[in-house]
Specification:
The complex is a heterodimer of chains A (383) and B (690). Chain A folds into 2 domains: 7-132 and 186-246; 273-376, Fumarate Reductase Iron-sulfur Protein, Chain B, domain 2. Helices cover 38% and strands 16% of the residues of chain A. Chain A has 14 helices and 11 strands. In chain B, β6, α3 (116-130) and β7 form a beta-alpha-beta unit. The chains are: A alpha/beta (383), B alpha/beta (690).
Chain lengths: 383, 690
């Protein structure tokens, strides 16, 4: 019987799935079992679109369809939490299973704080994430740095600090550090991220720390909640999954990997924030001065939920119909998300004006977190 | 199969229905309805990023205002009809008119917001059924001069380099283009280049959002492009900065140019730019290793449009800035399919792929491929878009307007309405009731971009797929299907298409430059840039690499004289009115005004007026004022700003009773472009305006 705090190696008993999935296929198996056992009514998952640079979200209700969602797509930079919120009204009362990276998980926690999702109805299978690469940037990197036609690549992965590709006729790995120093590599928000193992999910899964004969054949699972423990136990009882206790050496290696990732995150924070500090106001003014009000930073932000009557308010400092946007358009958003920006990078990635929005709001939040405590919630009055 | 209790979620990748950048996006479909737009990050064009219009482009799709039934005007009132009844009537009236008055009595107008397949089938129908060349599209009132001018200069009337290629440039010269607002995701490429440190020169009479990106913003007097370009070229030649080898090997006509520009050593009195500044930007453009010109309607929408475009061609050839990465001359095409509508031959003098109607061998080939009698296709140059309006009543008796709203978008709205009422029979096919529908005899309900398959060709000649996400509302039909049904009523052969792909394959069969672009190949997000003559051809992102597309392979210089606009400010109408576009709206707003956020941003038209002028006329910011021209009047709100110079006004063209009540119908002799960007108006304060 699994319980909160357990650390295990797990793998599917379905040999076909094991072949298709990565690292023992435990994540896919757990979600399949959750559907089969009616622990969830649907799974919000990600599947491969046109090619391996294209990640597409799908709602799956047939367990078999989950096989198509097995495997990772490091070029998928979706954020599922906001999607869930948007479709929450239609999903009302339904239980949904999800695979979450750190940012997906943080987004859900923030949305729950705002009562936009009910986490009782969401089963979060967390996966370790060392960062993701935007699809077009990934193709450019493969063409320019690997000298390989991106259309010929069959698999990509990030392992042991390297970005590794397999392609028709070979495989090649280049150190992430080298790539990133030259401007190729993970999204800049991912570089600064320090939530690499999503422990506030129900289960935290990944391949870090799987060693010995199970290396590459099992998934490391850390049980993070009673809900997670119950699912895992039932799946084992139903003979869907096999498990064994994680190798203590493996646990150590996993912790080391996480620590190394955190160190790298700190390096990037140091670098990005230090560069921003000397001319903070000037940089924010210049960069946001290009904003043409597409609202993508708001629409895609898991911390921004807007008032239904926002367009009936008198416009004092953000005048309707003026582009570039008045400065308060962004200042009010930075203020709004100052205590909860999760640095998911969606604002920046979707910005057509190339404004480094995540850099600004992440800097504001991390600096504020270091200085202020406790944080405030919504007040009982308006002023 | 999904259990019914859980909602479905489907992403349909398609192409944005707005500007000519051709951004890819996902329409979110849930239970048969489009419920949102989500980024498509795999797109090499926009990487998931969208502008305010793209972000909200789903909102009009399920509007309750959509046309859902064919309507026939009976005793002055529109009544619902069956498709059979409506199309029988259209077929009968067009046939009768053609039989009685001949092929020049019909007019066909095609919108650049409709897919290639529909542009192609409509022009084919006009030509096969009625042997008329009176078919044109609304490129005529945006980039017609680009097609004409670049064809004369380079032998091909399209943009030379892709949008992203500005990242390979060492200098970006933007002339009469407000890309940040009108082509935001092309503007993004310029913003990216700026971040890399690439210098940007913006030449514009107005301090536009794009001018704000510039290292050098050059304000010049409206519509004096040729004087300024000639002056720049004089100094480039004078200082020996021209590319002698390129001129020698790849061009002709240099002496004509050289002789002409000698008159323009100092033309400050015309264009208003200090001589030192002219020399400075000329040097910068000429000495950059790779310099690109991006231009737009500021260049084209004038009676000198074709000459202005050729001036851009002159500049680029003079400095050897053509035919490789980071250089070129790029018109930013306005509508989502303005490139395609022209490519498809919805044009009065060419078939698809710019195959000329006047050439007997080409007519013969088309007759064979379309299964027509030998000698039946006409050789004459058909009437252009606004010429057709002028010819309403004589000789044009019946007109078919497909997804256009001339009453708002063509110059001189009063004239347009008067002319349309002279027709015996007018068909309007659209998705919403427009100001133009009022003048119709039959209104046919078509489909939005979300309800049909097809392709849009963007301004970089990239053919992007449009994919059907949902079914049309009510009895509305996919537009290509309406033409198939009409062809059936007319008893035509060669129109029994079952899908847009079949129409596309018919187009490929008759169009050498696109023959290699099968739908299968267009599935890839990168798609293909034409020319792409064979299935194994990789497409052509950059034109004119080794030689120009002209028959002799050479580029042509033209010595061009500055000509003032047809109507200039005078004592009675002392202000110069310029027109343009807003980021928040698309054309006559039939689609964008149905988005809550876009309507909120700009619910009605305004005019920018200089601070000094406003002060002198005692006009306050936000006050309603009266503008008057020789053709009509408009009552916009005043936006007082130094973004425009004293004596100059700027209005967006999107609003009814707005800019086009005032604009001039005078035409560019070569391209028949009306002078939408320049007319003379008076400004009056009105009682109760503030």
């Amino acid at each position: 019987m699994a319980k909160k705090g357990d650390m295990l190696y797990a793998w599917t008993n379905d040999s076909a799935l094991a072949k298709k999935a990565e690292c023992g296929g435990a994540v896919t198996e757990l979600l399949k079992y959750a559907l089969e056992s009616k622990a969830v009514d649907a799974v919000l998952a990600v599947t491969r679109g046109f090619d391996l640079y294209d990640a597409v979200p799908v709602i799956v209700t047939n367990p078999k369809d989950l096989d198509n969602c097995a495997g990772s797509l490091h070029c998928g930079t979706l954020l599922l939490s906001k999607l869930v919120m948007e479709y929450a009204p239609q999903l009302a009362g339904k239980k949904v299973g999800m695979v979450v990276k750190g940012c997906d998980m943080m987004g859900l926690l923030e949305l729950e704080k705002r009562k936009m999702v009910n986490l009782d109805n969401i089963l979060m299978i967390g996966v370790n994430c060392g960062g993701s690469v935007s699809p077009v940037a990934a193709r450019k990197k493969i063409r320019e740095k690997f000298g390989v036609d991106p259309d010929k690549v069959t698999t990509e992965e990030i392992d042991k600090g390297q970005f590794i590709i397999e392609y028709e006729g070979g495989h090649k790995g280049i150190k992430m550090d080298d790539l990133e120093d030259e401007g190729y590599g993970r999204r800049s928000n991912c570089r600064r991220c320090k939530v690499k193992i999503p422990r506030q999910a129900d289960l935290a899964c990944g391949n870090w720390g799987v060693i010995g004969d199970k290396a590459g054949k099992a998934t490391f699972v850390e049980v993070c909640s009673d809900k997670g423990a119950a699912l895992l136990t039932k799946a084992i009882d139903a003979k869907k999954l096999s498990t064994e206790p994680a190798n203590p050496k493996g646990i150590e290696i996993r912790a080391k990997t996480e620590k190394a990732m955190h160190k790298l995150g700190d390096k990037w924070r140091q670098r990005d924030f230090a560069a921003l500090a000397p001319n903070l106001w000037g940089t924010i003014a210049e960069e946001t001065g290009r904003c043409m009000k597409c609202y993508a930073c708001i629409d895609n932000c898991p911390v921004c939920v807007t008032r239904p009557d926002k367009f009936e308010q008198p416009d004092l400092m953000v005048r309707a119909g003026f582009a570039p946007a008045d400065p308060m358009f962004h200042l009010r958003r930075f203020a709004h998300i100052s205590d909860s920006c999760i640095n998911c990078g969606q604002c920046e990635e979707n910005c057509p004006a190339e404004i480094p929005l995540a850099l600004f709001s992440h800097a504001i939040r991390t600096e504020a977190d270091k200085f202020f405590e406790p944080k405030l919630g919504k007040s009982s009055y308006t002023n | 199969m999904s259990k019914p209790s859980v909602p479905s979620l489907k992403y349909v990748q398609t192409t944005c229905p707005y500007c000519g950048v051709g951004c890819t996006l996902n329409l979110v479909v849930q239970d048969g309805k489009v419920t949102g737009v989500q980024p498509y990050r795999r797109s090499p064009i926009n990487e998931g990023k969208l502008c305010p219009k793209g972000m909200t482009c789903h909102e009009f799709v399920h509007s309750p205002d959509r046309l859902t039934k064919p309507l026939i005007k009976k005793d002055g009132k529109f009544v619902e009809a069956s498709w059979d009844e409506a199309l029988d009537l259209v077929a009968k009236k067009f046939k009768e008119t053609s039989d009685r008055h001949g092929p020049k009595s019909l007019g066909f107008q095609v919108s650049c917001r409709t897919p290639n397949e529909e542009c192609y089938i409509m022009q084919k129908l006009a030509r096969v059924a009625f042997q008329t060349n009176n078919v044109d599209n609304c490129a005529r009132i945006c980039h017609g001069p680009s097609v004409a001018g670049l064809s004369l200069s380079f032998g091909s009337g399209a943009a030379t380099n892709p949008f992203e290629d500005v990242l390979n440039s060492d200098l970006i010269l933007m002339w009469g283009s407000n890309a940040v607002e009108a082509h935001p995701l092309a503007g993004r490429r310029v913003a990216q280049a700026k971040k890399k440190g690439t210098p940007i020169i913006v030449i514009d009479p107005r301090y536009s959002p794009t001018a704000r990106l510039a290292d050098d913003w050059v304000r010049f007097n409206p519509s004096t492009h040729i004087a300024l370009a000639n002056s720049m070229m004089y100094w480039i030649i004078k200082e020996g900065l021209h590319d002698k080898e390129f001129i020698e090997k790849r061009t002709k006509g240099f002496d004509d140019l050289k002789k002409m520009v000698e008159k323009y050593a100092d033309a400050e009195s015309i264009h208003g730019v200090p001589l030192e500044k002219v020399k400075d930007i000329a040097r910068k453009y000429a000495t950059a290793k790779n310099a690109v010109i991006i231009y737009c309607l500021g260049i084209t929408e004038l009676t000198t449009g074709t000459d202005n475009v050729r001036s851009m061609g002159n500049l680029s050839m003079l400095t050897g800035n053509i035919g490789r990465e980071g250089v070129g001359v790029n018109p930013l095409r306005g509508q989502n399919n303005v490139q395609g509508a022209c490519d498809m031959g919805a044009y009065p003098n060419v078939y698809s792929g710019y195959q000329k109607c006047e050439v007997p061998e080409i007519r013969k080939k088309m007759e064979e491929l379309w299964g027509m009698e030998a000698g039946s296709l006409p050789d004459w140059y058909g009437s252009t878009l606004t010429e057709q309006i002028n010819e309403c009543g004589d000789p044009i008796k019946a007109m078919y307007i497909f997804a256009l709203n001339p009453v708002v978008s063509y110059p001189d709205s009063n004239h347009v309405m008067r002319q349309l009422d002279k027709l015996d029979f007018l068909v309007v096919q659209d998705i919403f009731w427009t100001e133009t529908c009022e003048h119709a005899d039959v209104v046919l309900p078509g489909c939005s971009f979300a309800e049909k398959d097809g392709t849009f060709t963007s301004g970089e000649r990239r053919i992007n797929r449009v994919r059907k996400a949902v079914d049309p509302p009510g009895d509305a039909k996919e537009d290509w299907e309406i033409f198939v049904l009409l062809a059936e009523k007319l008893g035509l052969k060669g129109f029994d298409f079952k899908s847009p792909e079949e129409i596309w394959d018919d187009l490929r069969r008759v169009t050498p430059s696109m023959a290699g672009c099968s739908y299968a190949r267009l599935e890839k997000p990168e798609s293909l840039h034409w020319p792409c003559p064979t299935e194994d051809h990789p497409g052509t992102p950059i034109l004119h690499r080794e030689k120009f597309a002209a028959a002799d392979g050479l580029g042509t210089f033209f010595g061009l004289e500055y000509r003032p606009p047809a109507e200039v400010a005078d004592a009675e109408y002392p202000f110069t009115l310029m027109t343009g576009r807003l980021i928040f709206h698309y054309h006559t707003r039939t689609q964008t005004d149905r988005s809550k956020i876009l309507h909120y941003e700009v619910p009605e038209g305004y005019v920018q007026i200089n601070t000094e002028d406003a002060k002198r006329l005692k006009i306050a910011d936000g006050e309603r004022i009266k503008l008057r021209s020789r053709r009509g009047e408009s009552l916009p709100l005043a936006r007082v700003t130094d973004d425009v110079a004293p004596g100059v006004l700027y209005m967006a063209m999107h609003f009814p009773n707005g800019a086009n009540m005032l604009t001039n119908t005078a035409l560019d002799p070569l391209s028949k472009m009306p002078e939408l960007k320049h007319c003379a108006v008076s400004v009056e304060k009105i009682e109760g305006g503030n």
